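REQUEST FORM: STRUCTURE PREDICTION
Request ID: SP-0412
Submitted by: Lab K.M.
Chain count: 1
Length (residues): 153
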Amino acid sequence: FDDLEQFLETDQFEDDIRAWEKEFNLGLDELQEDQLGNIRSIEQSRQRQEKLLAKSLPEQKTVEKGVIRFLYLIVDKSSAMDITDFRPNRATAMQTQLELFIREFFDQNPLSHLGLLVGYARSVQRLTDLSASPFRHIEALKQHDDSGGDFSL
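STATUS: Completed
RESULT:
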């Protein structure tokens, strides 16, 4: 800005003024006492309630549906999956959660591709190639019976 008067006439100057430098013209009908006895403007109270409400609402996950992702999942089918710390065992619990993950992955990433690798008996084998079919992966998981031994990449 060339001179001070020109700057003072702009909207930017109004934004740069600190709260205690602004001129307040509040009437008694625009003031309200809160629960703690503090006096606030009705507008301030409304803004504060909106902020509290926004904080209490759960955050919405943003899903980018236009992004193409390529993902390989490595599934443990070793003898460690027979341990019964999950009911009925780790393998069944993992398979249930994996099916849910595959469906949700393709719901959120319709253009993406997924492939499955299984690890057992100290080796890893490709169960499915990269594809965009959730049903193909779920069926391959259900039909795969080989397991045992140690897991190794």
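NOTES: Residues 90-108 form the longest helix (19 residues).
Reviewed by: T.R.
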